[in-house]
Structures are given as structure tokens and as C-alpha cells.
Write a structure and sequence with these properties.
Keywords: ATP-binding, Nucleotide-binding. With 193 residues, this protein is α/β, with parallel strands linked by helices. It has helices at 39-46, 68-74, 118-131, 148-165, 176-182; strands spanning 6-12, 19-23, 28-32, 53-58, 61-62, 75-78, 136-140, 168-172, 185-188. It contains five helices and nine strands; from the N terminus they run βββαββαβαβαβαβ. The strands form two sheets. A five-stranded parallel beta sheet has the order 6-7-8-3-9, sandwiched between helices. It has a four-stranded antiparallel beta sheet with strand order 2-1-4-5, covered by helices on one side. The relative contact order is 0.22. It binds adenosine-5'-triphosphate (ATP). Residues 15-16, 33, 35-41 line the site of adenosine-5'-triphosphate.
């Protein structure tokens, strides 16, 4: 087997249990566990947004040997609550993404963000993340606010992206069926005994 794209060894924050895993190109691993256990905290740690213990490697290179800006471009983090800074959708993109692929109308491009639904903003945030062409996706409940048709669109789009770019993803979900349908492996975090 080839070297892992991302290796996580004993990474933990002050509010999470430790996580160790290897992610290979094209692979999708699910992250499950009760609310408040620390799943999002672990994503922030891996994305270099939160102090943590443990070690990380990208393509066999240790995190401390990679410039932080490069790390954050390669490790694409989609938070459960996305931060938007401008007024209009178009301000947040370098170029217009394929909106229709996630069921979004072209008219949304010039709409104020305040007018958009949670599910619309969630899908736009995914398109924005993928424009940076990250090698690893950290997806924190990316379909939490979506109907079944759009859940399927998002799932298919992420799977296509992973195949086309030989990228890999970690996917947090509270839906065990979704994780079973999508993931090669599922890691369930538990409270330490
Ligand atoms: N900024 C913070 N300061 C202190 N505690 C925090 C902070 N952010 C999160 N926590 C705590 O860390 C713990 C883990 O939070 P986290 O958001 O990672 O949980 P989660 O497993 O993702 O939960 P959920 O499934 O509900 O999204 C929680 O107890 C939370 O209250």
C-alpha cells in the first residue's frame, strides 16, 4: 500500500479524546460519537486552528515542516457553522462554481447572504472549499440541514471530487446509515472509561 496522504497520531485537544488514523487517496473515513465528545475539536486541531497534542503528517511530511498557510490550503476544513464575511455570495468566490451540481439556482450568485437558507449556505460553503482544491477534506456534518435529494447531491459531489483529485476525507455525521453508505471505515469516539 502507498504512504498515507494524511497520518494522524494521538491528536487530542483539551476537550477531545485522542485520534489516530491513516487516510489514503480516494478514501473516506467517518467520524461518529455522541454530541459534545470532541469531534469538531479534533477537526480544528487537524486543520491547525486549535492547540493540540500529537503528530500529523501530510504525504509523509511532518506538519512542523510545512508552512501553516500551505497546510490550511491542503487540509480543507468545512465547519458545521460557516463564517461569511461579505454581503453577497459572489464576494466569497474567485470564480462562479458549478452551482447547479448541488441544486443551487444561478440567481443565488447575486443574492445577499442574509436571505439564504442554512442549507443553501452549507452547499455554497462546500463549493467554496473545493475551489481551493484541498487534498484532504474535513467535513463537519456537511448535510445536516439538507433534504434527501440534496443530501444525495452533496454525497455524490464529494465522492466524485475524491476520485478525480485522489483526495481523501473525514466526514462527521450523526446518521449511521450515511456513514455506512459512504465510508470505507467508521471511527466512533467514546468517553474514556
Ligand atoms: N471554545 C471552547 N471553549 C471551551 N470548551 C469548548 C469550546 N469549544 C467546544 N468546547 C467543548 O468541547 C467539547 C467538544 O465540543 P465539540 O464541538 O468538538 O463536540 P462534537 O463532538 O463536535 O459535538 P456535536 O456532535 O454536538 O457537534 C464540548 O464539551 C464543548 O462544550
Amino acid at each position: 500500500m502507498t504512504a498515507p496522504l494524511l497520518r494522524i497520531e494521538d491528536v487530542a485537544t483539551a476537550n477531545s479524546p485522542a485520534l489516530s488514523l491513516s487516510l489514503h487517496g480516494g478514501e473516506l473515513i467517518g467520524l461518529a460519537g455522541p454530541s459534545g465528545i470532541g469531534k469538531s475539536q479534533l477537526f480544528k486541531a487537524v486543520a491547525d486552528l486549535l492547540p493540540h497534542r500529537g503528530h500529523l503528517w501530510l504525504d509523509g511530511k511532518a506538519q512542523q515542516d510545512i508552512a501553516p498557510a500551505h497546510w490550511r490550503q491542503q487540509i480543507g476544513y468545512l465547519p458545521a457553522q460557516v463564517h461569511w464575511w461579505g454581503n453577497q455570495v459572489a464576494e466569497h468566490f474567485n470564480q462562479q462554481p458549478p452551482l447547479g451540481i448541488l441544486g443551487l439556482p444561478d440567481s443565488i450568485w447575486h443574492q445577499p447572504l442574509l436571505q439564504l437558507s442554512t442549507g443553501e449556505k452549507q452547499r455554497l460553503a462546500l463549493l467554496r472549499l473545493l475551489q481551493n482544491q484541498p487534498r484532504v477534506l474535513l467535513l463537519d456534518e456537511p448535510t445536516a440541514s439538507l433534504d434527501a435529494v440534496n443530501v444525495e447531491r452533496v454525497e455524490r459531489h464529494v465522492q466524485d471530487y475524491l476520485q478525480q483529485h485522489q483526495a481523501a476525507a473525514l466526514w462527521i455525521s450523526h446518521d449511521p446509515q450515511q456513514l455506512q453508505r459512504l465510508c470505507q471505515h467508521i471511527i466512533t469516539l467514546r468517553v474514556a472509561a
